Amino acid sequence: MATLTAVAVVSGIAGALAALLVLAERFIANYGECRITINGEKTLTVPGGRSLLESLAAEKVFIPSACGGRGTCSYCKVKILEGGGPLLPTELPLLSESDRAGEVRISCQVKVRNDLRIEIPEELFNVREYRGVVERIRDLTHDIKELRIRLVEPDAIRFTAGQYIQLRAPAYGEQREPVYRAYSISSPPSDGGAVELIIRLVPGGICTTWVFDHLKEGDEVVFNGPYGEFRLTDSDAEMVWVAGGSGMAPFWSMVRQMAEHGSQRTCTYLFGALTKKDLFLVDELRELEDRLPGFRFAPALSKPEPGDEWDGETGLITEVADRAVEQGTGAEAYLCGSGGMIKAACAVLEQKGIGADRTFYDSFT
Amino acid sequence: MKETPGEARIRERMKPGVLCADGFLGDDRRRVGEIIDADRAAAERAGTTLDALADRLGGVLDAAVAGLGGRVELPGGQTAVWREAMGRIPCPFGGCGTFPKGEVELTGPGGETVRFTPLSVHLLAEHGFAQGRGSRYRLEPALLARLFG
């Protein structure tokens, strides 16, 4: 009897506490409707209480995010001019000094509790969420795959060659929540009913493990985009492209668009790999050399194996760039790869007369 | 000793599927604090410290990254190769920012190999955490001590 009484008392207390929490959430944590003014022009009215990232996404304004709002990727930076409240401890490690000086915040950590004024790049208004079906998965090398996704809803995408999308990897295995990862679109913009991606396996990577071990042709996928400012200029300047591995992706989109438009621009594409088995799309790029009079594809191996019978360029891609570029004055450089490769390549190209103002890059890291 | 709430939160972030597919604990059932204490003692038995090992690994990382994917030879007779990867990964301890993905394969003169990442170096240097047994990037103090001579 005493036990039953104790259980009843504890249950009653728990119930009362739960009711108090509900009331507290309803009346104390209820921030009502809040207005978010974007770029001084567009105003959204949203229910308060959610993160800025979630609130914007609910209104179909997509800010890049790789970690699903867990405050770990730092992609979702937004400039908040008013109403953001004090900087949070969870934001501090992800913001540089210039971010803080520029009123930049981590939007997945900032709660919408009052009206806000924010600034975001105009290009983000073109970002949509897309549903598609995997039409083809093709092995390009032992650790790189090409995905072709046919769009279902919406059934077409508009983007500039060089931009990227964020592919959603759903919960699978021990992965309890979906994550998003950024991949450059490798198909040309004219192929608007589909997107192609070039994906390299990252050991222990959540999304790439899903792509390599679980994703099948015919599966539905979700992604958002397009994002990014990496693109060719409209000039006629001679170009040097430098990439390795999955850094091929934006250039594969760009060169196919150049071929469609009959571009006359002079372009030397330096692509670095370790051995011959790490090269891909070589035949396709050689064919484009025939179609584009100014285009030259120069693959380079840093450690060719005896069986490779390689008579092409050898050495690190930066050494190859040093040899390939004699006088770079007036030329433009486009780079896609790791931060280390980009830093090293920029140093070489600067010495050849291609300064920072004429160097454009899409860094992996 | 019971796991503190702070340790429990860190352990949750270290589990597979939270920050990376395989997590940071491998098949190790010990508390994070126990792993750190045991590895500190192991380093001492091997005649070194976790700080010293982290320092050496940092040097190897810098040399390997500068090698841009080619195998580099190190002064102690080891070789290292850097494999780049897209993206960044946060520290599971929280509050430390994010680190570039990619891994270094370090091979000693005797052929022993260990793999580590920029985040591995940070975890060892700042938190004394060498990752759980069975983890892909587990840094056994005794093995490292042998590799570095």
Topology:
The complex is a heterodimer of chains A (365) and B (149).
Chain A: H1 2-27, E1 33-38, E2 42-47, H2 52-58, E3 77-82, H3 97-101, E4 104-106, E5 116-119, E6 128-139, E7 144-153, E8 164-169, E9 179-184, E10 194-200, H4 206-213, E11 220-227, E12 239-244, H5 248-260, E13 267-273, H6 282-291, E14 295-301, E15 313-314, H7 317-324, E16 332-337, H8 339-351, E17 359-363
Parallel strand pairs in A: 1-5, 12-13, 12-16, 13-14, 14-15, 16-17
Antiparallel strand pairs in A: 1-2, 3-4, 3-5, 6-7, 6-11, 7-10, 8-9, 8-11
Helix pairs in contact in A: 7-8
Chain B: H1 5-14, H2 32-45, H3 50-66, E1 72-73, E2 79-90, E3 98-107, E4 113-116, H4 118-127, H5 141-148
Antiparallel strand pairs in B: 1-2, 2-3, 3-4
Helix pairs in contact in B: 3-4
Using brief descriptors, characterize the structure shown.
heterodimer; A: 365 residues; alpha/beta; Elongation Factor Tu (Ef-tu), domain 3; Rossmann fold; six-stranded antiparallel beta sheet; 29% strand; B: 149 residues; alpha+beta; 5 helices; globular
Residue windows where pLDDT falls under 50 for at least 5 positions of chain A: none
CATH homology-level superfamily of the largest domain in chain A: Nucleotide-binding domain of ferredoxin-NADP reductase (FNR) module
Instruction: Tell me the domain tally of chain B.
Output: 1
CATH architecture of the largest domain in chain A: 3-Layer(aba) Sandwich
Percentage of β-strand residues of chain B: 15-25%
**Order of neighbouring strands in the sheet with most strands of chain A:** 9-8-11-6-7-10
Give the mean pLDDT of chain B: 93
Proportion in β-strands of chain A: 25-35%
What report would you give on this structure?
The complex is a heterodimer of chains A (365) and B (149). Chain A folds into 3 domains: 33-124, Beta-grasp domain (Ubiquitin-like (UB roll), Roll); 127-227, Elongation Factor Tu (Ef-tu), domain 3 (Beta Barrel); 239-363, Nucleotide-binding domain of ferredoxin-NADP reductase (FNR) module (Rossmann fold, 3-Layer(aba) Sandwich), CATH 3.40.50. Helices cover 25% and strands 29% of the residues of chain A. Chain A contains 8 helices and 17 strands. In chain A, the strands form 3 sheets. Chain A has a 6-stranded antiparallel β-sheet. In chain A, strands 15-14-13-12-16-17 form a 6-stranded parallel β-sheet, with helices on both faces. In chain A, strand 16, helix 8 (339-351) and strand 17 (359-363) form a beta-alpha-beta unit. In chain A, helix 7 (317-324) runs parallel beside helix 8. Chain A is elongated, with a radius of gyration of 25 Å. The N and C termini of chain A lie far apart (65 Å). In chain A, 42% of the residues are buried. Chain B is built from 5 helices and 4 strands, in the order H-H-H-E-E-E-E-H-H. By secondary structure, chain B is an alpha+beta fold. Chain B is 40% helix and 19% strand. Chain B has helices spanning 5-14, 32-45, 50-66, 118-127, 141-148; strands at 72-73, 79-90, 98-107, 113-116. Chain B is globular, with a radius of gyration of 15 Å. Chain B has a 4-stranded antiparallel β-sheet. Classes of the chains: A alpha/beta (365), B alpha+beta (149). Chains A and B meet through strand 9 and helix 8 of A and strand 2 and strand 3 of B.
